[in-house]
Amino acid sequence: MIKYIFSYLSEEVPRRLPQLLFGLVLCGIGLAIAYEANLGLSPWDVFHHGFGKILGIQIGRAGVLTGFIVFVP
Question: How far, in Å, CA of 66 to CA of 28, rounded?
Fold first, then answer.
């Protein structure tokens, strides 16, 4: 069973990681566009806004970074 899990992870993770990162970049771009258009922010995006201010980065990059931190581990 353990061997099967490690085999699955070693095959699937390298294939799916670029898909995850591409999706996170698209979400970050969409977040930045909604932010610049003054459409308002969802609660999660308010977190991204504050996180970006703390780190001194743009809200879209903060969204990508947060998504990467949450999804990868």
Answer: 10
Cα–Cα distance, 1 to 50 (Å, whole number): 43
> Which residue ranges make up each domain of the chain?
16-71
Task: Give pLDDT tens digits for 3-37.
Answer: 666 666 677 777 888 888 898 788 778 877 887 88
Q: For residue 21, give both structure tokens.
A: 């990162």
**Residue 67: closest CA among 35, 19, 33:** 19
Q: What Cα–Cα distance (Å) separates residue 34 from each residue in 41, 45, 59, 60, 70?
A: 8, 10, 11, 10, 22
Model confidence, pTM: 0.57
